[in-house]
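User: Fold this; tokens only.

Assistant: Input:
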Amino acid sequence: MELLERASFLRTLSEYASEARNGDGRLVLVSGESGMGKTALLEAFEHQLGGARWLWGACDGLLTPRPLGPLFDIGAQLGGELGAACRSVTSRDRLFAAFLAEIDSLANFTVVVIEDVHWADEATTDLLSFVGRRLGRMPTLVLVTYRDDEVRDDHPLKMVLGDLATQRATRRMRMPPLSVEAVRTLADRQNVDAAKLHAVTGGNPFYVSEVLAAGWPSVPATVRDAVGARLARASAATRRVVESAAIIGTRIDRALLLPILADCGASMGDCLATGVLVPDGIGLRFRHELVRMAVAAEVAPHREAELHARLLAALEERGDFDPAVLAHHAEGAGDHKAVLRHAPEAARRSSALGAHREAAAQFERALRCADDANGQTLAPLYEGVAAEYALLDRWPETEAALRIALAFRRELGDAASARRDLCILSTALWRLCRGGEAELAAREAVLILESAPQSPGLAWAYAKLGVAILISGRKDEGLELIARARDL
């Protein structure tokens, strides 16, 4: 589809690139609703701009995003320290430092593209803040795309965007809809009422292109209808492959798709001919996430579960895939045992990378699928989600999860774990302004530990109880407990 009414944006991007080449790095926030052509603009700019190294990464529209997904995408394209750091899944600080070192190079003018940050996990938004504050004196251009219509006031990205706006390297660029004249140009060779088409689509380039591809005047009411009309012209085998690709995700590893092609008797060329899938390096991707969503919505539930199961088996056999993706497919397949294998690991990795919302969501996913699990399995899941809730300042949920974990620990006779849970519960209750209950929980932790040999754990329990009592105004009693803690 021809790129119309975007020449001024290409000129502006060229100016930003020139400034970046001269050492005045730029972070360009490219926004617009879904289908406005943000990716198409950047691809056109890539073809126009010479002498630059391009690094592409994207956030995925998974129910629970991959922590630092764009950074790992970029690391997979590179060797060196960043590639090694990504492959070893090292600490977040080392990953951030390696990324900064990779793009701060006088030898290579680098353009970094991070797409769809409205889906970004907590760690990726931290990466944007980290880079945005340091980019001003680097020979680097960073282009970030997001759907502004999906970033509401309570969206986690909102605060990051506000912080980035204060940085001297930051520039904004919002993609507007097409005019009626542009729609008329696109529909020039078809018998189409351009004004009506503009009214139906709102000038959204993606909607316009899909409607025209599906054929006028049978105008689809939604993108799903437009994509369905396009796929209807393909063979049944090709449609099955495209449906399978939609379950894989926006970007498709050819190695995952090849067995499906063989089973269906379709070819890669047939799939590309639909226009729904396009080449993406050594793999494929959907031309737009809305296309993938529209295709996936048409997959029958039993077939969707079957595809998730096949993908899960293939990825587990490879043994080198992100546990967040494995957990996603496991839940889609209804394989609760696999969810319990992968979701807690995904939660721990997310937490280690600072993506605590995603960590909590992964623990919640595991708990949804733990219907037949025993207390030995459930207790650490509730403790894990409680720890993440506490870091997110969600104290009522912290209390609820800890009380369930405590019940399991008491049932199991696990005094050490019960003591730890009681100490955290005491903090949660204090945060909820329930000081009396907080003190009782701390006292119970002390009683458990006093019945066992003396330990550092008992010292910490004395200290916590002593502080709770001091806060309540009972100075002598509190200081006595703190003295015991000091002596231990």
